[in-house]
Amino acid sequence: MSTEQAKEFLARMKNDERFMEAVIGIEDVETRMEYIRREGFDVTDNEIRQEFEAAKKADAQAYEESPPPPAVLPDRLSQPSRAGRPIDLMPSVLSRDSESRLIAGI
User: CA–CA separation, 57 vs 81, rounded Å?
Assistant: First the structure.
């Protein structure tokens, strides 16, 4: 059990959509954790939660410290957030929908 394993798990969740959907699709927490372990992650649900919260905090800090975007923004960006920066520029570990589905199940 380690936070390094939790970091690796979250990285795979972010980069492997099939894996993410498989994990999120398992509603029972025990079954979900068994699947995660079978996939090679020696991690507890608490370690995942802790690392997820740490990553969210680091992302929020990086976002707050980032310079504002240029005055002319590409069309693909959404409307500005309260801070005046496009919401799509905010870094994230997982999409907000995936985040809520993962954490709600653990």
Answer: 18
CB-CB contact of 69 with 89 (8 Å) = yes
Low-confidence ranges of the chain (pLDDT < 50): 76-77, 86-91, 93
19's tokens: 């894996």
Handedness of CA 20, 18, 98, 77 (dihedral sign): positive
**CA–CA separation, 54 vs 24, rounded Å?**
20
pLDDT of residue 39: 96
One-letter amino acid of 55 = A
Give the max Cα distance, the chain.
49
- Residue bearing tokens 């954490």: 103
How much is the pLDDT for 56? 87
